[in-house]
Amino acid sequence: EQAAEGIVITATDGRIQYVNPAFTALTGYARQEAVGQQPRILKSGRQPAALYEDLWNTIRSGRVWQGEMINRRKDGTFYTEEMQITPVEDASGQIVNYIAIKRDVTGRRAAEEAQAFLAAIVESSEDAIFTFTPAGAILTWNRGAEAVFGHAAADAIGKHASILVPPDRLALLTDLIQRVLQGQAVSQYEGIGLRKDGRLF
């Protein structure tokens, strides 16, 4: 009753026998609305039939099924859930129930998709885009940076950002980093860069 995850207990034919309050919070269906129904009340139509076939084949054979699916709440909105379904056996080894534990991962998936989208934009940019730690160690390096500076990502990542500026300009790089660490926005800056082959630009 107090679990943070939605919990559903069904009969072997799929009829819902019990749901906890977290299931109601997740789906919008009160216990009295859900009990007696099939879990298909949550079906979004966004999964292939093969997923459900695999799910049923797995749990009917006595094995645990784990997966992720997009379902539909009572109000019609979609959400993404991670689910684990465990068969429950009686003393003779017969399956008598299934217990499903559901976790809402909608926000996490949306954040991951946004991050992947942003990463794709950065990677495909012709501009040099890279990140480095406050100590100056390069963390990420896109294709634009490879083209501009001449260093492959494998060579640049882990090195100090000082490889990107001429030695006589290191003090300016240090000053720039300090300004950023103090919370000052540096929206535009013009300087001299150093390519891998020693050419300046």
Summarize this entry quickly.
This protein has helices spanning 21-27, 31-34, 49-60, 106-124, 143-149, 153-156, 170-181, and strands spanning 6-10, 16-19, 65-72, 78-89, 95-104, 130-132, 138-141. By secondary structure, it is α+β, with helices and mostly antiparallel strands.
How confident overall, as mean pLDDT? 93
Terminal residue distance: 65 Å
Biggest sheet: strand arrangement: 2-1-5-4-3
Number of DSSP strand runs: 7
Q: Approximately how much helix is present in the residues?
A: 25-40%
Structural class: alpha+beta
What value does the Rg take, in angstroms? 27 Å
Explain this structure to me?
The protein has 201 residues and is α+β, with helices and mostly antiparallel strands. 32% of the residues lie in helices and 23% in strands. The protein contains seven helices and seven strands. It has helices at 21-27, 31-34, 49-60, 106-124, 143-149, 153-156, 170-181, and strands at 6-10, 16-19, 65-72, 78-89, 95-104, 130-132, 138-141. The strands form two sheets. It has a five-stranded antiparallel β-sheet, with helices on both faces. A two-stranded antiparallel sheet has the order 6-7.
Give the SSE layout.
Layout: E1 6-10, E2 16-19, H1 21-27, H2 31-34, H3 49-60, E3 65-72, E4 78-89, E5 95-104, H4 106-124, E6 130-132, E7 138-141, H5 143-149, H6 153-156, H7 170-181
Antiparallel strand pairs: 1-2, 1-5, 3-4, 4-5, 6-7
Descriptive terms for the model:
201 residues, alpha+beta, 7 helices, 7 strands, 23% strand
